[in-house]
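Lab notebook, bench 4. The sequencing result for the construct came back, and we need a structural model before the next group meeting so we can plan mutations. Quick request posted to the team channel:

Model the 3D structure of this chain.
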Amino acid sequence: MQLTINGKEYELNFGVRFVRELDKTIGASIKGINFGMGVAKALVGLGSYDSAVLSDVIYAATDASKKRPTAKEVDDFIDEDGTDLDSLFKQIPEEMRSANAVKAATKNMKA
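Done. Here's the predicted structure in token form:
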């Protein structure tokens, strides 16, 4: 999946680096110990149309890019009037579910 942010094209990658980045950003942490759960929390947030989670997911998905957008650029992209948020809230979870690195976790969440 590709997005144009601030006039630049970015490939979103939902692989292992994406999972690690989400775990760091929105994962479950108790007394300084990170238990992961970033993918699960992201899917719940995307399902409830949480724009902050959408921004975190897009930013994490650009981790593999040689030159990635800043978190502020992703926030600004989401805030733009022309950005089709409904489409993003539908497409991104579908892309996540089809990625090998998160396929099992997303499949188990559906059960």
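The chain has one domain: 2-110.
Will bring this to the meeting.
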